[in-house]
Structure formats: C-alpha cells, structure tokens
Automatic annotation (TrEMBL):
Protein name, per record: Isopenicillin N synthase-like Fe(2+) 2OG dioxygenase domain-containing protein
Every Isopenicillin N synthase-like Fe(2+) 2OG dioxygenase domain range: 228-324
Naturally occurring in which organism (per UniProt): Podospora pseudocomata
Family (UniProt): Belongs to the iron/ascorbate-dependent oxidoreductase family.
InterPro entries linked: IPNS-like_FE2OG_OXY, IPNS-like_sf
Residue intervals passing through the bilayer: none
Domain of life: Eukaryota
Keyword annotations: Iron, Metal-binding, Oxidoreductase
Length: 382
C-alpha cells in the first residue's frame, strides 16, 4: 500500500508473461502477483504486458468498428435491443447517462478532488454522445440462469461489407483481451493471498462483453466535449487496447490526480477495477473513475488522420472488454479482504486522505448488482 510520499503518476506495468511461463511457486511469480494486487489497491488500474496480444489484431478490430459506425443511423438501429437493456448489439449516442451526474456519493468524490484535478462538469450533462456495441464472449452455464436478459445471443450486423468480417475479427480480438484479463484475475488472487482460481472460477460463466464505444469526431470533435462522463464500470475488470485517439483520463485512488492514459505500443493493455471487484474485496480495491473527453491531443490526432487517411471515418473507437463475474454468483465480500479494507481505509485517513462515508456491500446475486447499476445509467427500463 501507499506510504505518505507522493505516488508516481505512471501506472505500474505488470508482466503476465512472468505468471504464464515461470514456475508458480517461484519468488519472481509471487512478487509479480503481489505487485499486481498492490497496483489495483493503490491505483485501481495498471498496464498489463502479455506477449500473446497482437497490435495487428487491435488495428483490424478498430478498422472494422470504424466501418460499422460510419453506417447510416437507420442501419445501426436494426441492431438495437432496448428490451434487453441494450446488453447486446448497439446502443446509439445520447442513450447512456453518466451515473455520477445524479449520484450523490460520486458527486462527493468529485467535490473532494482539488479543483484542478476534477473531471469536466457533468452536473448538467446530457446522455453521453457515444455509441456502443456489445458482443458477448461467454461460456454457456450448465444450468438455467436467473438472468436470461443479461445472457442473450449475439447480433451480427447485416451490411455485406461488414457481415463476413464481423464474427472472426470480434472473436479474435475479444479472445485476446479475455485471455489476458483472466490471467490477471489469477495474479490478483494470488497477490491477495487467495487461491489462484478464486476470481476466475467465479467468472467462468460471466456475461463477458467485447464493448467498443464509438464517438463521431466530425460532430463531437471540439476541445472539452465530454464523450463519456466521469464514471466507474459496473463489472469486475475492464481491459482496454490502444485507441487511435487520446482522451481517456483516469483517477488513481490514492493520488487524487487526473492521469491522461498512455498505453505503450505493442503487447500492452490497460486494466481498470470495476464495481464487482470492489464489492467482493469489501472496498479493499476500489472501482476506478474515468472519463473520455476531447482534449488538445485528441484534436492533434484528428487533424493528423484527416491528412494521412482522408477516406477513413473520423470515429474514435475504444477497444474495450468488460469481464464479469457469473450472473448467478453470490456477490459477498471475502471476510479477510473486508478486514484488510478497513485497515487500508484507516491508514488513508491517517495520511489525510478522506475517502468519504464507509460503503456497505450487501450480499446479492451478481445479476441483481448489474441490473441495479443499469437502472442508474438509464439502460434498463424496468
């Protein structure tokens, strides 16, 4: 955990290769696992190196999604499923609301930040001007789920120039990110003193989602435009490949600083903690806050791509994957982690870092937790 000195603004880099290819009981593996767990406790985020990940797969994926979201709105609407809370297929712009705009604990988090470190103002913020596509990457459970709406079948777009490429490209990149993040769940478990498969087994039948967002930079390309308002993710871990356009800011738990995200080129991914991980650790690991905005760096890349690729759509695609615990899993804080969370919270307070009101984490099914969060962001109508 953090000492009183200032923390680095650079996120820790965790090497999954050490865990995958060195003996599990080696000092090197154990140390890397502790480093991973501490990174999640301290920052709520980390950079993950996995030599199996191909930058070319990410590029192919970004090209496909740019082509998809460049289609007319009437074609995109065919892939909408509001009756399934938009948990499959497309969500069009100005649908999803940032929960923080109306959520008092979240507004209090913003209030505790220094004015220079706060996100762009979301109090009067309308729904996000971003689109999204959800493509499920799941292992079907050997039982009947209580939450079929969160476990629906995938939708493949009909457009001839997209349809044939869609499944293979989505599954290739989705599998790369899923394999990487599952390796990290094992590392984090070991680093927290748990059996390696604790989290991986709990998420074996999770409704994992390859979940790219798309922002039309022809329409929303002005500096200080909010593309995704200040929020946390409701799932267990979120993993990102590199986007072509900068603009993602994260807030590391123990710095109070806004960090512009830079993912190195090559076999690197960004991972952030979500609400399910916060819940199961009793708040030892906190879900990471983040926003996506248009900043000066975004505009520079927009102008650069206009010049170099004049025939390509100007769409900011996020290369995002949401890893979930299984919908029917009982989400209850692990007792030893809940106790450690209290110690960390007290240590933070003694360092002058007020984390606000203590949060209660009631026992409930993961599917209930997801449904509750979806209502907050206006995706679930019932």
């Amino acid at each position: 955990m953090a000492e009183s000195q200032e923390l680095s603004m650079d996120l820790p880099v965790i090497d999954l290769d050490v865990f995958l290819y060195k003996p599990r009981d080696s000092v090197e593996v154990q140390a890397e696992c502790v480093k991973a767990a501490n990174a999640l406790i301290t920052y709520g985020a980390l950079v993950l190196h996995d030599s199996r990940v191909s930058e070319d797969d990410n590029t192919t994926f970004l090209d496909l999604l740019e082509d998809y979201f460049a289609q007319p709105e009437e074609d995109l609407k065919k892939d909408e499923r509001p009756e399934l809370s938009y948990q499959i297929g497309v969500t069009l712009e100005n649908t999803e609301k940032p929960k923080c705009a109306v959520d008092e604990p979240c507004l209090n988090v913003i209030e505790r930040l220094a004015p220079s470190e706060r996100p762009l103002d979301i109090k009067g913020h309308e729904p996000d001007p971003k689109c999204r596509f959800f493509w499920r990457m799941v292992e079907a459970p050997p039982y009947e789920t209580q939450f079929p709406g969160l476990n629906a079948d995938n939708i493949t777009p009909d457009a001839p120039h997209i349809k044939e490429r869609w499944g293979p490209v989505m599954n290739q990149w989705g599998a790369s990110m899923k394999n990487a993040v599952e390796g990290l769940t094992q590392m984090a478990a070991v680093g927290l003193g748990l059996p390696a498969d604790t989290f991986k087994d709990a998420g074996r039948y999770g409704p994992h989602l390859l979940a790219p967002t798309a922002s039309d930079l022809q329409k929303y390309g002005k500096v200080n435009t909010i593309l995704a308002g200040f929020h946390t993710d409701l799932n267990f871990l979120t993993i990102h490949g590199r986007s072509r356009y900068p603009g993602l800011h994260i807030w590391a738990r123990n710095t109070g600083k806004k960090i512009p995200v830079k993912i190195p080129q090559g076999n690197y991914l960004l991972v952030q903690a979500g609400k399910q991980l916060e819940h199961i650790t009793g708040g030892l690991i906190k879900a990471g806050f983040h926003e996506v905005v248009v900043n000066e760096s975004t505009v520079k890349v927009i102008n650069d791509r206009k010049e170099k690729f004049p025939n390509r759509p100007l769409v900011r695609i996020s290369s995002t994957f949401f890893w979930h615990l299984s919908s029917d899993y009982d989400l209850v804080p692990i007792p030893e982690l809940k106790e450690k969370a209290k110690e960390v919270r007290a240590a933070q307070f003694n360092l002058g870092k007020d984390e606000g009101e203590e949060v209660e984490y009631p026992a409930l099914k993961v599917g209930e937790q997801v449904s509750n969060e979806l209502r907050h962001i206006a995706l679930m109508v019932k």
